[in-house]
Structure formats: C-alpha cells, structure tokens
Specification:
It is a single chain. By secondary structure, the protein is an alpha+beta fold. 40% of the residues lie in helices and 17% in strands. The longest helix has 14 residues, at 31-44.
C-alpha cells in the first residue's frame, strides 16, 4: 500500500527517485529537471547524438572481426566474445548533493554494447604482453 501511494505521489508531481552521488541516499528530483541535466551534460561535453541506432551494423562488424581473426580467438570460443542481444549504451546521472547547482555524475552502462566482451578480451591480451602498469 505504501509503495503504491509513493508511486502515485511521484506521478502526480512529475518526479522520480534517483540515487545521490555520495552518501548512499535517495533523492526525489523533478523529472524535467533531471532530463535537462542529462541533456545539458551531453551538450556541454559535445557528445554526438544520433536519431538512428548504430548497434546492428556495429554488431555485424564485430561478428566479422571475430570470425576473421582465428589466431586470436579460437573457433570454439568465438561465441563468448559476441554479445547476443546488443543495445546502445545508456546513461543515467547521479545527483551531486554537495554542490550548489546540483550537477550530475554520469554513469554509462556499456555492458550490452556489441564490442564489450571483445574489448575485455583485448584488454587481457594487451596486459599479458606489455609491461604497462
């Protein structure tokens, strides 16, 4: 009952619950203000946005690379490095409560992008063969 009333109040006031950047606390924030903070962050940092999803062509390129380079990736294990259900990365913002204008700390979820598993493999191989810290 309490959860339903909280959801109703949030919907009525066009607000959302998000997490704070530090302090392990929840923040009730107006949805429009949250969306404008995300948009301002993207615009301020000159990120490119796209109206079409580039995931499918990128997934095809990853599959081609994995199939082509059999010396690096064995045929039996190539399925491990292709994300079967890829999607574009998503962004969410954690509110910085200790700052006056309450900016956001962006958190980008890369787990479902087509090259995530392949990049993990390449990072491991580079660390094996280099003396970089």
């Amino acid at each position: 009952m309490t959860m339903r009333s909280i959801q109703t109040k949030l919907k009525e006031n066009d607000a959302m619950i998000t997490t704070a950047d530090k302090g392990n606390s929840a923040v009730i924030f107006p949805t429009q203000q949250y969306n404008s903070e995300i948009k301002d962050f993207i615009d301020k940092n000159k990120f490119q946005t796209s109206t079409k999803n580039p995931t499918k062509p990128f997934q095809n390129q990853i599959r081609t690379i994995v199939n082509h380079y059999t010396t690096l990736i064995l045929r039996e294990s190539k399925w491990k490095y292709v994300n079967l259900n890829p999607s574009a990365p998503t962004i969410k913002g954690l509110i910085k409560l200790r700052k006056l204008d309450q900016p956001i700390r962006p958190i980008v979820n890369w787990w479902n992008v087509p090259a995530y598993k392949l990049s993990q493999l390449l990072t491991t191989k580079i660390r094996q063969f280099s003396s970089l810290p």
